[in-house]
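Researcher: Go.
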Amino acid sequence: DVQLQASGGGLVQPGGSLRLSCAASGFCFSSYAMSWFRQAPGKEREFVAAIKWSGQTTYRDSVKGRFTISRDSAKNILYLQMNSLTPEDTAVYYCAGRQSIVVSTAPNLWHVWGQGTQVTVSS
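Model: Structure:
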């Protein structure tokens, strides 16, 4: 079965850091574009970051310089290092995969989704 299992969320104070992980199985991870999306209560799911199979990365403007997406193709794991967190980063974070050399910021163009992990930034 094709699966993505996200983990690493939690409660953190403003200015703190978290690292999310997403374990992939059942597909050729190294050939997929991978991404992180997030969804806050009452809001639409939004693009956070993506990484191509080549390692090229893309970020939404509000997380540039604070978040880093990376992948370990030997372990089939996707990461999102989040630093300098603010309450506006509070959301459920989802990892997603797309069998394409092209990334997209549109959620409906990603084929495989993980179950989400809650990130809460609050003092």
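Model: The longest strand covers residues 18-25.
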